[in-house]
Every structure is written in structure tokens, then in C-alpha cells.
Amino acid sequence: MNTPRGARRTDTTLSDGRELIYYDPADAPVRVPVEDTRGLPAPQPQVELRTDPLTGDVITYATHRNTRTYLPPADQCPLCASKLGNPTEIPDLDYNVAVFENRFPSFAGPGRTEVVCFTSDHNKSFTDLSQGQARLVVDAWADRTAELSAREDVEHVFPFENRGREIGVTLSHPHGQIYAYPFLPPRMRTLLARAREHKAVAGSNLFADVLAGEKKDGTRVVAENTNWTAFVPEAARWPVEVHLYPHRQVADLSELSVGERDDFAELYLDVLQRLDGLYGDPLPYIAAWHQAPVRVDRELGYLHLEVLSIRRAADKIKYLAGSESGMGAFISDTRPEDVAETLRRMGS
């Protein structure tokens, strides 16, 4: 079937009952899924949620994840398309974008965790995708956001990508994840509290006002197009930090128009190429989508993407030491305006 914005979706299941979904261009041939012949046992995740009485934060314990696959050789990658002698999580011989339930989930019962494979090419990164390929990933994110948001056990949908061993990546294949939290995560609670205060005082949306202020000032804007602006935030925490905002307030990815999806793919690839040019090699980063909660305060939210890197120099990493880890008070070695100016020059 086709998704609301045109990608072709094909649903199937893996041998242990987990869901697998293929996303192909709308004009691609109809996909006939290949059977998963691995005969995997049914997953038995061990997940426990506890609430910290001091902060109200929910802490998740997923002890079964200690046995998950860790940095396998390329010829044994579980995210590549299957081939003779190496049946993988994706039984077909090739794919465009594939999404499946995580075999080692952080949430089970309430909530859900999924893996999003951006391409079958093991040696690519998101930066290397064509605009059409990146656009297909956006369609997959949007479709999963809509479907996961409809679940009664989900409060917040968080698509993200970890890139680079410095970040803690355990599989080098180009992929991201989606966490469908059964609770509202701490950062979203904090952002929404600030947005609520801002609305009461200013009568407007906090995120929209931040975007308007960055566009008016201009010194931290990295790049922009018709529907999106990328900028280094005024109070960036991380050595390298770029936020991408749509010019229209939308709650989540599923609400983006065709044009907004096209323009995001174009601008994001531009930003990623600039980031990789900073130190002359692939930059380790976390790309974190901030979407409005599923049920509460949706009018306060504003979809945007935050791209964060812990690399503070070509040969140095920013570690979260005493002030950051103990008190949550960030001390940065880089100035947002300088980072923005450097990234602007990368595109010239």
C-alpha cells in the first residue's frame, strides 16, 4: 500500500513474529517479501520502569540488551540485505528503506522500539544518500510516527540516529531508531514547561519565536531554503550543535507537506556535508527529532531536528564531566557564532 505522502509500503513478519516494513518509491515494482527462514525463538525482553522520586524521571532497565550484537564484521552485519550464508534481519536480497521491531528492545509491553535502515548499502552514511533516498527516509519516519502515535501505550515518538563509535554505535550499517515511549521523556517535559510559561507571558509559541529571532539576527544561521532554516542555537550546549526548523509550526513529521519533506531532505543533506567537512572526516553525531507529545500539550510543540556532536576539535572529544554529569550545567569550549560562521563557509 502507499503511505499518505506517496511511498510504497510493504508489511511482513520475521520468523519470531516481529514486524518488518519495507518502504520503496511509489513507482517501484510491487515488492513480494521473502520468507525469513532463520527460525528465531520468540523474543523474551526483560524491561522494568522505575520513577526517580527526586526528579520524577522514568528510568528504564532493559537487562537483556547486554547480549545484543556488538560491532560485527561487515560480512556478518545483521542490517544488510540477506545473502547466501548470511541471513539477516532483512530477508530480501535488496531494499530501499526497511523498518523492523528491535530484537533487543528498550521497551516491551508498553511502548515499542524500532530500527530504521536507511539503505541496503553497508558502506554509505545518511550524508551519502541522494535527495530521493533521504526523502524516502522522511516518509518512513512520518508513517511510523503516525502509526505509533495511534497506540494507546505510547506517549511520545522519538526518531533518532546515532552515528560513530564515539557516540556508542554498536552496528556500523547506516541506520537509526525510533523509540515510542510509554511516558513523556525528561527533556520533553522540560521543553514543554518552558513553552507553557512562554505562552502565558508572551501569548505565542516559544519555538516559533526562537526561530523568528534566529532568522532576524542571522549570525547563527547556517543555511536555509523555502521551508526550513538550519541554525546554531544561541545557547548551544554541545561543541557542534545545529537545529533544523520548518517555517510552519507542525506537531510532528506526519503533518509535513510534500514540499516541506522535499526541502528538509535537501537542507539536511547540505548540513550533514558541512558537518563532515569540519574536520575532514565523518563527524560523530546524534540526530534527534523533537516532536509534540501524542496526547498532551500538542499545541505547545513544534517539530524540529537537533543534530549534536561531542567532538570539540579534530582530535578531541567533549566528555560530560563533573559540572555536566553531576549538576547538568554545561560548560562549552566553542562559541555558537563561531561554529555557525565556520559551517556557513563550508558551503561556499
UniProtKB/TrEMBL annotation:
The keyword Metal-binding applies. It is an enzyme of class 2 (transferase). It catalyses: alpha-D-galactose 1-phosphate + UDP-alpha-D-glucose = alpha-D-glucose 1-phosphate + UDP-alpha-D-galactose. Gene3D superfamilies: HIT-like (3.30.428.10). Zn(2+) binds at residues 77, 80, 122, 173. Keywords: Carbohydrate metabolism, Galactose metabolism, Metal-binding, Nucleotidyltransferase, Transferase, Zinc. Residues 111-185 form the Galactose-1-phosphate uridyl transferase N-terminal domain. The active site is at 175 (tele-ump-histidine intermediate). One of its GO terms (biological process) is galactose catabolic process via UDP-galactose, Leloir pathway. Binds 1 zinc ion per subunit. GO terms for molecular function: UDP-glucose:hexose-1-phosphate uridylyltransferase activity; zinc ion binding. Its cofactor is Zn(2+). Signal peptide: none annotated. This is Galactose-1-phosphate uridylyltransferase. The gene is galT.
